[in-house]
Amino acid sequence: MSGITILATGAGAPGAASIFKAFRLGAREEGRKLRIVACDTDNDAYGFHLADAQYTIPAGKSPVFIDSIKEICRRESPDIMFSWVDPELYALAKNKGQVEVLGPKIVISNTEAVEICLDKGRLYEYASGLNIVPEHRLARTHADFEEAAQALGYPDRPVCFKPLEGHGGRGFGLLDSKLDSSTVFFAEKAANVFTSIEDMKPIFRGAQTPNLMVMEYLPGKEYTVDMLLKNGEPVVTIPRERARISLGISNIAKLERNGEIIKASEQLARKLGLDYNVNMQFRTDSEGKPKLIEVQPRLAGTTAASVGAGANLPWMAAKLALGEDVEKPKINWNTMMKRFWEEVYTDGARDWRL
Questions:
Q1: Eight-state DSSP code of residue 93
Q2: Looking at residue 214, what DSSP letter applies?
Q3: N or C end of the chain: which has fewer CB within 10 A?
Q4: Quick check: is 324 in a domain?
Q5: How many domains does the chain divide into?
Q6: Which domain holds residue 198?
Q7: For residue 270, is it within any domain?
Q8: Do residues 265 and 239 lie in contact, with contact meaning Cβ atoms separated by under 8 Å?
Q9: Tens digits of per-residue pLDDT, 9-64?
């Protein structure tokens, strides 16, 4: 069978290794030759050592980002392109035609859908009729922030916040008046998310302070939903509980056939007109009802959980991009994924793993 070259950005992302594994697994099972061309903004991205070719590229918001991708396409002639880097997604969706004329099919949703997903304010407006949006307020100044927190019940109830266009857990925080600074300092790890109204004042003085979404605190379970869509219609939808999280990344994930979350995810995906790989995040409120946290129009960093359960979503998306048929996978809903660190070594001349 014919070989495939996949161009993938985000080679230094935590989930890159497992996604590369999924690509190679799919190719191996179908007897196809596979070549992975990896890109990242970091010269030392570990994923460079797991790929067949490597390129350092500018950031997704750089004016020369698309030009760099086009040049790589001319050199490598990829069949498919993936990105799981949020700041790159809008540029790729907007300039999809410029890149695809050079050969690769980009695994990405339409420009408007991507733009909505990357702006939590617009996303919540779009999803408002589905009864899955948490109570929230927008804050552009510290006075707005304080007023929003109080409107959501603070200090009697904890509230959380995040930038409208944040990603990867950046800028997420939690206000909880029941925790004193001494408790936080000594009991929490350095990357704790707890803060106070007063501690946020200097943040709003910064020239680059983004608009914040202040939200009701959801105390229940947290879920990520892995989805694959074909022309806006769900092919497979897999919720998994984020059972243990470290620095925003799931170290233990449990698949859960949660009908309510599956229904909500598919309704929203259809409304947005999403395509290919998508992940959604939910958290349950005090009554156990799932509320939407965010939608990311790309592969999730822990897609490996679904791959291990029988749904190789990265490879299935690649096949859809090539116009090939995919079968609905048989999912082992009892699957639990546990993660650990692994090393890659290089001496400049060769790469190896123990």
A1: H
A2: E
A3: C
A4: yes
A5: 3
A6: 135-216
A7: yes
A8: yes
A9: 999 999 999 999 999 999 999 999 999 999 999 999 999 999 999 999 999 999 99
